[in-house]
Design goal:
Order of helices and strands: EEEEEEEEEEHEHEEHEHEEHHE
Strand content: 25-35%
Radius of gyration: 20 Å
Strand order of the largest sheet: 2-1-17-16-14-3-12-13-15
Oligomer: single chain
CATH topology of the largest domain: QueA-like
Region (Disordered): 1-26
Number of helices: 6
InterPro entries: QueA, QueA_dom1, QueA_sf
Pfam families: Queuosine_synth
Number of domains: 2
Keywords: Cytoplasm, Queuosine biosynthesis, S-adenosyl-L-methionine, Transferase
CATH architecture of the largest domain: 3-Layer(aba) Sandwich
Protein name: Queuosine biosynthesis protein
Length: 364
């Protein structure tokens, strides 16, 4: 399938952006809305009911990466700005090299008047602009003199964008599974999980396994006419042996492997080599309908913006028709977008298809 930019474009009203965590609206994390999409249709419920839409023997795979305070205050010859760190690619005794996004502020992106070799101050450290990332000029390789981790602890804040008008503490951007710091932005698909949800999954006979993928700045908007050519920077990942074993065993028993977030899809598919194997390193895998999906049978995620590269991955996992129908339903029914928004469970292979709950039935 030849995917073009128009395939990733849809109308989403601005008021459907989640502007604050659900807790600020008096809604527990696990009580956000859940849209369940299968070949049989689209059904609304509550995230706390997640286990009811899965089958015994299914396997959920989650990302254990924790969020960094990766947004640093910065100063250049033209004044103040913000430098959002994405991924560290090199570390020496007294220097580190990161990929980063310079922005005027959390609400206002670039471009900024920057050039190769410019020296700025970010997080109190001297930082040199080395080179823009090929094909993604909004991102720069930046060489820091000093300890970036210490600078983040002193002066860093969680990355946020203009639709979230107020700053929230770093704990707001962590999931239940976050125990391996490294992500510039929260792997937010797992944010609604609670201990209550895990108990319900265990009682249902649904397994949970873990990978690590340290994500950079949020899904980059596709700008090329041929969306399959979209570049993605490499991101570090690990699929441990116990997770590879769990995936193989689930597949052999006829169960479904359901990724919790697009980061998990990229990690699992990057570890596929004709079979599921442990793997670690960097991945720049960009999944789209022209590239086969071998491991993942379903996806639990949030709702992604028009033109976001993540939409191409959703099409690869579930087919464009199912995803476009789900997004039309989400807009009609007022689901909320972004990291503090609602959840979307996509099951292109619905199996025996458990009974669907109505939204009014509330949490289990």
């Amino acid at each position: 399938m030849s995917l073009t930019l128009s395939d990733l474009t849809f109308e989403r009203p601005e008021h459907l952006q989640a502007t604050e965590p659900p807790e600020q609206r008096g809604v527990p994390r696990d009580a956000v809305r859940l849209l369940v999409s299968t070949p049989e249709g689209h059904h609304g419920s509550c995230f706390a009911n997640l286990a009811n839409f899965l089958e015994p023997g299914d396997l959920l795979v989650v990302n254990r990466s924790a969020t960094l305070p990766a947004s640093l205050p910065a100063e250049g010859g033209f004044g103040s700005f913000v430098l959002n760190l994405a991924t560290r690619y090199g570390r020496g005794p007294n220097a580190e090299t990161w990929l980063a996004e310079p922005r005027w502020s959390f609400a206002e992106p670039g471009p900024l008047p920057l050039a190769l070799g410019d020296v700025v101050t970010a997080g109190g450290l001297r930082a040199t602009l080395v080179h823009p990332y090929p094909g993604l000029p909004r991102l720069w390789f930046v060489r820091f003199d000093g300890d970036v981790g210490a600078a983040m602890q002193r002066l860093g804040a969680p990355i946020r964008y203009g639709y979230v008008a107020r700053a929230y503490p770093l704990a707001t951007y962590q999931t239940l599974f976050a125990d391996a710091p490294g992500s510039a932005e929260m792997p937010s698909a797992a944010r609604p999980f609670s201990k209550r949800v895990l108990r319900c999954l265990a009682a249902r006979g649904v397994g949970v396994a873990r990978i690590t993928l340290h994500t950079g700045v949020s899904s980059l908007e596709v700008t090329e006419y041929k969306a399959a050519r979209h570049p993605l920077p490499p991101e570090p990942f690990e699929v441990p042996p116990e997770t590879a074993d769990a995936v193989r065993e689930t597949k052999a028993a006829g169960g479904r492997v359901i990724a919790v977030g697009t980061t998990v899809v990229r990690a699992l598919e990057s570890a596929w080599d004709g079979t599921m194997k442990p793997a670690r390193g960097f991945t720049r895998l960009y999944l789209h309908p022209g590239r086969a999906v071998n491991v993942v049978d379903g996806l639990l995620t949030g709702f992604h913006d028009p033109k976001a590269s993540h939409l191409a991955m959703l099409y690869a996992v579930a087919g464009q028709a199912l995803v476009r129908g789900a997004y039309a339903e989400a807009v009609r029914e007022g689901y909320l977008w972004h990291e503090f928004g609602d959840s979307h469970l996509i099951l292109p292979r619905s199996g025996e298809h458990p009974s669907m709950l109505r939204p009014s039935e509330g949490p289990a």
